[in-house]
Amino acid sequence: MDNKTSKDVGTKTKAQLKAEAKQQQQLEIRRNKHFDFLKYIFSAILIAAGIMAFYALDAQLPLYIRYLFPLVGVVAAIVIVFFWSAGGRELTAYVRDSVSESRKVVWPERNEALRMTLFVLIFVAVLSLFIWGVDSLISWLLFDIFMKRS
After folding, report:
1. How far apart are CA 117 and CA 23, in angstroms?
2. Does the keyword Endoplasmic reticulum apply (predicted)?
């Protein structure tokens, strides 16, 4: 039987092997999505249980101890969602990459930033005056000249 199995593996083409690997990967992704959904539901249940415990133990425990129940529920939910689910790991990797990219940004010097800000403000003022002038001219032409409004 080992001889036949090795013979079958040897006769498979690279395309068939790639297709099988891709199919196996898609099956694993689908399975992970189901587990991730269950993790999200469990996280929501933890948060709800913390809030319910806060209100249910109103008479038995002091306020500062009751605050721990929702806090523990939220922290546990965050850990489950962000560290034990595929979506959370992808999000944390994205944030980590974004932070590392933002560290690579070269910010302008203070004088250059002030100069460019002043340039933008002057440009906006000039453009606003130009648009106001064109609007006034068109309004004057249409209403005062062509419609003979006085």
Report:
1. 55
2. no
- In angstroms, rounded to a whole number, what is the distance separating the alpha carbons of residues 37 and 16? 32
pLDDT interval class at 54 (50, 70, 90): very high
Residue with tokens 């101890």: 65
CA distance 121 to 40: 48
How far from 70 is each of 4, 38, 60, 61, CA to CA, in Å? 60, 20, 16, 14
With a CB cutoff of 8 Å and minimum separation 6, the contacts of 69 are 49, 50, 51, 53, 54, 57
- Are 70 and 47 in contact, with CB atoms under 8 Å apart? yes
Please give the model's pTM, rounded to 2 decimal places. 0.51
Least confident of 16-25, 44-53, 119-128: 16-25
